[in-house]
Amino acid sequence: MLIISYFCVMAFLKETAKNIESIFTEWSGESPAEINPLPGSGSIRSYFRVKGKSKKAIAAYNPDKKENESFIYLSHHFYSKGLNVPEIYAFRNELNLYLIEDLGDDILFDRILAEKNNLTSGTKELIKSSLRSLAELQLRGSRGIDFSKCYPRARFDAQSIQWDLEYFKYHFLKIFDIPFDEQKLENDFQSLKNMLLQAGHQYFMHRDFQSRNIMIKNNTPCFIDYQGGRKGPLQYDLVSFLFQVRAEFPWVFKMEMIDYYKQELSKWIKVSGKDFDHELFLLAYLRLMQVFGAYGYRGIIQNKNHFLMSIPFALKALEELRRKVELPGNLPEIRKIYNYMLHIQTGMPIQKMEPEKLQLSISSFSFKHGTPKDYTGNGGGYVFDCRALPNPGRIEKYKSFDGKDHAVIQYLQEFAEVETFIKKCHDLVNISIRNYLERGFKHLSVSFGCTGGQHRSVYCAEQLYRLLKKDSRLKLNIYHKELKD
Hints:
Blueprint (H helix, E strand, L loop, with lengths): L1 E4 H5 L3 H15 L5 E4 L8 E6 L4 E6 L3 H16 L7 E5 L4 E4 L7 H7 L6 H19 L18 H16 L8 H15 L6 E3 L8 E4 L2 E4 L6 E3 L1 H9 L8 H15 L7 H29 L3 H4 L2 H14 L7 H12 L14 E9 L15 E4 L20 H7 L3 H24 L3 E8 L5 H13 L5 E7 L5
Parallel strand pairs: 1-12, 11-13, 11-14, 12-13
Antiparallel strand pairs: 2-3, 3-4, 4-6, 5-6, 7-10, 8-9
Helix pairs in contact: 5-9, 6-10, 8-10, 10-12, 15-16
């Protein structure tokens, strides 16, 4: 069981927080007033919003030093050309940290999702603006770039394509027991690679150009998460954006935006419509394979349920693509697999999947009587030690009250450290909530202990309950062990 005292809460991720404080102070000339973790993604990177008296930034922690070096190099290169990427404020690779411009919280994907299949003119214009900026990033951004600094590959070559295909085979087909002939599938993979490698791939490819990686600042799209970028085909990023399965753009809109993008490209280079479209749809099929592989890996291997819930969207996208554009080339085994995926029960756990609520049990107790027992089989959860907080139990007029009474509440709210303690506890618990929901866990316990289990622990438990009670993902219950009622 994890027991976290007040001082341990303040020291959570102590080394990283200390390093973030150092790098922020060195850059801004002022100490950070807040360092708040941001929601995680599918990567190993961790992000924090850092605010000082007058300045703010995003701190990124990433133990992959080579990926950091690639991202910093690309960012400096693009920013020097006036392209829409965040400014790099500081970089300390020995600490696995860098500090970048805070672009806010307005993500293009959120707007698209909110306006599902009924995009406003404003959002459509942002999409067009994103495609214009993409063409500029790919073409003008390619000038003078040292692709040898890209990571993990300098170009979208046979190895890059093979990794995507193997991702599909090993993390989707095999995980869900979809039958296929191994040798025939490898033959098709080789044919598909040969077709894709016939085209010229001499421009910068973002690699993960989707609306989740487009921030809107001052009504202008700004691009993030291009650390996997490399030399490659222009169409790959266009496909990643328009065929993003959760965006569910109507086919007519996709075709309209493809034409719009080609018009923008034609201002820079000569575009052969027939060849361009042929490679685009080949890449659309390849990108979907990569997406299926990612959903299988994240959903089954990493036990992140929301990725499994995205599989029906990917199947819908595949069905539409096949209906509109037949898979090019002689790829019989891939066609057979697609038929199976779309028309035969595969046993994939994706039918009627609703996200289960996480049961969160909050309690207070007295350390005199020991920490709470775990009855869930999960090994317990957080145990926060409130004994370092101001103690109203030592004051005669509060002795008959408890942490739910107004007099005690008013007393504790006068101390800034009490508010800080609860905020830090809330931040920690939120990290576990996100992680537990992604991994399909069903229960999390949070306990607050103090000397008598009557004042501070009860107050803190009630405050956490208040902060979390509107979270629709949770099923909350609260229990005060030492209170008679």
